[in-house]
Amino acid sequence: MPEREVWGTRIGFILAAVGSAVGLGNIWQFPFKTATFGGAAFLVVYLLAAVAIGLPAMLAEFVIGRRSNLNVVSAFRGLGRREWRFVGIFGLITGFWILSYYSVVGGWVIRYMVGSVTGAYFGDPAGYFTTINAGLATVGFHAVFMAITVGIVAFGIEDGIEKATKVMVPSIILLLVGLAVWATTLSGGGEGYQFFLSPDFGDLRSNWTDIVPFAVSQAFFSLSLGMGAMITYSSYLGADDNLGQDGISIVVLNTFVGVLAGLVVFPLLFAQGVEPGEGGAGAVFISIAQAFSELPAGRALGVIFFGVVLIAALSSAISLLEVVTAYVVDNYDISRPSTAVGLGLVLFLLGVPSALDIAMFTWFDAVAYGALLPLSVLLILVFVGWVLADEALDELRKGTNGIPTLGPVWLWTVRVVVLVAVLATLILGVQGLAEDPGILPPV
Ligand code: PFF
Description:
79% helix
């Protein structure tokens, strides 16, 4: 068995983890879900969920990954708790499931980039979305997105993922900052800031059983939790990293990018008189495309905007492909490139139904949000809080050089507060799914 890889640098790990976290969840789903759920009030709930539930859960994943230095399934054996391997298997399945349809959206994004160059969506943004969201060509673009993902993962941790995300993450942030500054110059954009930033809690009060669980699942999705990604990435860490500090950096950067995306999207929509807030995967693409088709430099801006979205989607997709790749490479005598190609092929096939039929796509997403993500995180929390317990505390303390970690506070938060919140999310999510599998999803 070849020696296991490690990150070249600490910042390499942080950027790769941020690359995983920052994705379609931030730039596409987050602003639009904020819009659907009434604007700034949702933003407040989401921020609370990310800090109070997402961060402790992320540290739980880091503890498993770094203590075992193994992939998401073998980690449980490595920690002497072989009988808990089902938790890892469940995370692996969740990641696989999500990546299959995520890649389909990645394909749409490539298409919109091309469409910005040729001006294909100008004039009829709604019609364009209907043309591109399903069908054989959609399958083709899904294949292209998956192929690029496979290409990066095939190169490995330091030469593939670390190198790629070191360029990708700063580019995403710089380009988004540029777009946000540009958005301040749009006349009529002021209402967009108002909508995004000044909360009205009325909606929340009447609709909290939908909004709160969604915000929690959105925090998991956005922070790449419950899909094995953070366990896998932290398994390539050395003992001298301060997990708490890394976790905080990742949550802060991820949230920053989501907010930044909102500061681009909302002024843009309001300036063009496009009403945000209608649900549906299409609304996202249609309203943004409409805004670009009405602006003077719309083509160039469209290429930049969809280019940022594409980079963000790719740096997330590689993290999920890595979850399964690490599992195979750690356990079987198959080379990394062959593994990545083989898995890419299987994932591609699993995504074909979502690429052929948008109803299928919506269902995949609904199941991930309503059931798979909260259940997967719940299992991890039980394991770390109640089974690993003191060992988890010990792991969290490593690399802190005496800086207080608030470890016991974290452990009790994981054991009780976070656990109960996630359990409630799961129950409400499954209930919602049973009532209406097509409406719950965040698309
Ligand atoms: N954190 C990612 C996002 O917000 O887009 C979630 C994710 C989805 C990561 C799919 C990886 C992935 F393949």
